[in-house]
Specification:
The protein is an alpha+beta fold and 664 residues long. The chain has 22 helices and ten strands. The strands form two sheets. Strands 2-3-7-4-6-5 form a six-stranded mixed β-barrel. It has a two-stranded antiparallel ribbon with strand order 9-10.
């Protein structure tokens, strides 16, 4: 028999094992080619305000996508080599040299990879326009984008998948040349071990594993508290501790804790195991040692994917709310420099409303407002704070009612709340020349009264009109106040917004204002953007991020789901004899499948459940840096991921059912 004939027959025989692997390779190649096609399309990159940032983001995304695909193909090839170990052993028994076997497997892999890569590139080209349309939708841009076949993307994809093929071939040769004939025949049964009673040390490791996970969760909840994390080095240290404790704890839990729980369930049956127990608990216990590492990796990858996707979607979901919170008016000017703008609006018959604010920059000590004030010797707590009078603030926040020596804060963001937690009822100290005055904080408003760029993201302090007028007469405060007024404009008819923005840019030099620093004689520059322009810029930037992370999330999902599916296919083939015995003694397909479903619930459900818990605590610890809403985007992201992940569990159950039906 010719070697080529043997290769063709071998591929034909293994086609039922290859089909999902082949599909996964096609999907990976198509996904990667589509992504790099968009990366090398100048029209797509230039759609964002910062093309350099977009280009860098696509480049980083392509590297991360490559890492995910590499992990997938390396692990999947390892599973397939294990599955074909007896076949490779038979080749050696009939006298075929290891070098010839390696050559045969190399030819098979080359045919498989070349076919999958070419089909994937073709599919990726057709889908690249679809992904481009999704990208335009995400960044809320209505433009026509032409997508030509990119030779740069083609070359990059071919080079990447050629490199991956070389890695797979080296892995295959290593396994064939380093594994003995006896090991090849025992490869599929190595996972089957006689269950031994767990010793106290193993039980202790299981408890430590669960304890490490709980400790990691606890650390994540205090990660950004100022009194717990005093410096950036301490923050990095705690982040490393969280990551390390959760990863190690996950492995120990799968290796020992789950095995102990399963052993306890089996012991509680007192030797009377039901059919469901035989098909679910027993296989899980026997394979837990060999599966612990892979289940831990899948759990961590799931957690990572969900955390990245959730944080990205939180950012994207919160763009509008964040813009409304920190940019209260459609357009704004400072120091009464809006007369030319108002005249131009009136000339074009554009209706608008104005809200005028008088501003002061005062020295206020906010340290006493903290839950745990910083000691005086460690804190230079006097800081320039924007002060607004009560009557002006009521234009936007009408429910303010202040008595003498009372104050309200506005524009208090979630990040400020996390890092600098102020308490209502405590006093702040207002410094004027050589005197001090206590102001009681009676309320905190999330909504900013004026554009947050004026306060550098810090909250503004609202005080009584009488006290504000007194401060206006203070010469030190007058010298310290750079921007003396703020005027916000609201365009009544939204259809005239685009024209109004154009006028605003022309009459205010693109919203750039300048003032002299009285203390130093220097010139200070401030740029106030129109709310809609600011919203679009954020939407483009975050839309690019959610688009790229969506690609990575798909790759993560493909890798984890496919690996679990391949593992379950291998286990299904190994258990074929057990299914045959059960069918012969009278058990029906449906009765056997009940136990299989319980096993699949563990194999697919437990890594997903623990991954969700990991990602939830990871997201909850720092979501306020990314947006204003947690619950809705988190539920949407996790719901979609669970739904797509479930497809692999359904495919696995169908594969088991097919094997059971084929037996008799």
């Amino acid at each position: 028999m010719k070697l080529s004939t043997l290769v063709i027959r071998s591929m034909r025989k293994n086609i039922k094992h290859y089909y999902l692997y082949f599909f996964a390779l096609i999907f990976s190649a198509g996904l990667y080619f589509s992504f790099v096609t968009l990366q090398h399309n100048g029209a797509i990159v230039k759609l964002t305000h910062s093309s350099m940032k977009a280009e860098a983001a696509f480049r980083v995304g392509s590297i991360l996508l490559l890492i995910i695909v590499f992990f997938f193909v390396f692990y999947a090839n390892q599973l397939f080599l294990k599955r074909r170990s007896k076949e490779i052993g038979l080749y050696q028994m009939i006298g075929i040299p290891k070098s010839t076997i390696s050559y045969m497997l190399t030819i098979e892999n080359i045919i498989l990879w070349v076919g999958a890569t070419l089909i994937g590139i073709l599919i990726g080209f057709f889908f690249s326009r679809f992904f481009a349309l999704i990208f335009l939708k995400v960044i809320d841009t209505k433009r026509e984008v032409s997508l030509d076949f990119s030779t740069e993307a083609l070359f990059q994809t071919l080079m990447v998948f050629a490199g991956l093929l070389i890695v797979v071939l080296l892995q295959t040769m290593w396994v064939v040349h380093r594994t003995s004939l006896l090991d090849l025949f025992k490869a599929t049964s190595k996972a089957e071990q006689k269950m031994k009673k767990m010793n106290p040390f193993q039980l202790l490791l299981g408890v430590i594993g669960i304890g490490l996970i709980i400790y990691g969760y606890y650390l994540s909840t205090i990660l950004f508290e100022m009194d717990k994390t005093a410096s950036i080095n301490e923050l990095y240290k705690r982040m490393g501790m969280v990551l390390g404790s959760v990863i190690i704890g996950t492995f120990l839990m799968f290796r020992y804790s789950i095995a102990f729980i399963m052993n306890m369930i089996r012991m509680s049956r007192k030797g009377h195991l039901s059919l469901n127990d035989v098909l679910s608990i027993t296989p899980i216990m026997h394979r837990m040692k060999s599966n612990a590492l892979s289940l831990s990796i899948i759990t961590i990858m799931t957690a990572l994917a969900l955390a990245i996707l959730s944080l990205s979607y939180i950012s994207y979901y919160s763009v509008e709310a964040r813009t409304e919170q920190f940019t209260p008016y459609d357009m704004s000017v400072v120091n009464n420099e809006g007369k030319a703008f108002e005249k131009a609006l009136q000339k074009e018959n554009i209706e608008f409303k104005t809200n005028h604010y008088e501003l002061l920059n005062a020295q206020i000590d906010l340290n006493p407002l903290l839950k745990e004030p910083v000691p005086a010797n460690q804190n230079n707590s006097k800081m320039d704070t924007m002060v607004i009078k009560e009557s002006d603030a009521k234009q936007l926040i009408p429910n303010i009612h202040l008595n003498k020596n009372e104050a309200v804060m506005s524009g208090y963001s979630d990040i400020m709340k996390k890092f600098i937690p102020f308490e209502v009822g405590k006093k702040m100290i207002l410094h004027t020349d050589h005197s001090k005055q206590d102001l009681t904080l009676v309320d905190i408003e999330k909504q900013a009264s004026i554009d947050s760029i004026l306060t550098f993201g810090a909250p503004a302090v609202i005080i009584q009109d009488e006290l504000f007028k007194q401060l206006q007469k203070n010469k030190a405060i007058q010298k310290n106040t750079l921007w003396t007024s703020y005027t916000g404009y609201t365009i009544t008819n939204s259809k005239q917004m685009e024209k109004a923005i154009s006028i605003f840019k022309k009459t205010t030099n693109d919203g750039i204002f300048k003032a002299s620093v009285k203390k130093k004689g220097d010139r200070e520059t401030l740029q106030l953007e129109a709310k809609e322009e600011s919203y679009k810029m954020q939407l483009e930037s975050l839309g690019l991020m959610i688009f790229i992370t969506g690609f990575l999330g798909m790759a993560f999902l493909l890798a984890t789901g496919s690996i679990l599916y391949f593992k379950q296919m291998t286990e299904a083939e190994e258990e074929r004899g057990s299914f045959m015995t059960l069918r012969k003694i009278g058990f029906s397909t449906d009765e056997i499948m009940k136990g299989i479903h319980r096993k699949q619930l563990f194999s697919f459900g437990l890594p997903l459940l623990i991954g969700i818990c990991h990602s939830y605590f990871a997201v909850k610890s720092g979501w306020m840096f990314f947006g204003t809403e947690l619950v809705v985007p988190l539920l949407i992201t996790m719901g979609i991921y669970i739904l797509l992940y479930s497809v692999f569990a359904i495919l696995t159950s169908n594969y088991y059912k097919k094997i059971i039906k084929e037996i008799l």
